[in-house]
Write a structure and sequence with these properties.
Blueprint lengths: L2 H9 L5 H19 L7 H17 L5 H23 L4 H20 L4 H4 L10 H5 L7 E4 L2 E4 H25 L2 H18 L4 H24 L11 H14 L6 H25 L7 H22 L16
Antiparallel strand pairs: 1-2
Length: about 325
Amino acid sequence: MDFGSIFGNTASYLFSPVTIAYALAATGLAVHFGYAGLLNFGMAAFMAVGGYGYAISVLSFGLPWWLGMLIGLLGGAVFALILGIPTLRLRADYLAIATIAAGEIVRLLFTTQLFDQWTNSADGLAGYHGGFRGANPIPPGTYGFGPWTYNETDLWNRVFGVLMLALAILLVWALMRSPWGRVLKGIREDEDAVRSLGKNVFAYKMQSLVIGGMIGAMGGIVFVLPSAVVPGSYSTSLTFFLWTILLLGGAATVFGPTLGAVIFWLVFAFLGNLLPDLAKAGFLPMSDTQAGTLRFVLVGVALMLLVIFRPQGILGDKREMTFVK
C-alpha cells in the first residue's frame, strides 16, 4: 500500500474548500441548534439556496460576483423566513420532520424541468467563476508545499473561504456574548420561562434561523467556488455529515464546528483512501468499491457513539447540551 499517497490525499483536506464550506454550514447549524435549540435537519437546503442564488445571479442576470454572493445570502434569509413562519411554533421532533421535508423539497425543485432555464435541472450550473477569479489579488504562480501546493486560483478559493469563516466565527462569538445571545440560550433551556419575562420567543427563534441560515448559505457559496453547482450534492447525507461535525466539535461552541469539520474530513478522507487499499491487498473480505462505502457505516457508528458517550462534543459543556435532555 502507498501510505505516502494515502497520507498526502488525507492531509489535503486540512485546507480544502469542502472542509471550509462544511465548517461554515456547521457554524450556522450551531446557531440554530447549539444556541437556540432548533432541531434543523434541512441545512442542506440553505447551502443549496446560497450556491444557486450566487450562480444564477451571475449566469442568468449577468450580475457581478460580489452582488451574486449577496443575493445568495439574501436567499438564505428569505428561505429562513418562509421556513420559519409556519414551523417555528412546532415542537422539536415535529420541527425536525418539517425541516427534513423542506430540504428535500428545495433539492427536488432545483432538479425539476420547470426551472430548467435558470437551474439546468439535474445537470447543474457551471461557468460562473470568471468574475470571482478575475478579482483574485494573488499573483499567478505556485504556492505552498507538499499536499498543500496550489495555483493562484485554488489558493484564492481557500483564502476567501477562510476569511468568510473567520467573519462567521467572529459574528457568532459577538452575538452569543450579547444580551440577545443570552436570551437565545435561555430559550434553548426553557422557552416558557423566557416567555414569562415578556420576551417574544418566536421573534428570537426567527432571528436565529435567519442568521444561521445566512451563514449556511455562505457555506453553500464557498462549497461551489471550485467547480459547479450540482443538485445531487444537497442530499440528506450532507445534513447528516453536518450534524456529525457539529456534535463532534461541540454544538454550543464557537470553534467547535470548525474543529469538527477538520477532524471529520481528515478521518473521512483517510478511511476513503485506506479501506479500498486494504481490500485490494486482501486484508478486507470485500471489493475496493464496497470498502470505500464502508466509511459511511463507520461514520454512522461514530455518530451513535458520540451521542451516547460524549454528546457535548470535544469542546462542549454537557450542561449546555439540550440534545441529552
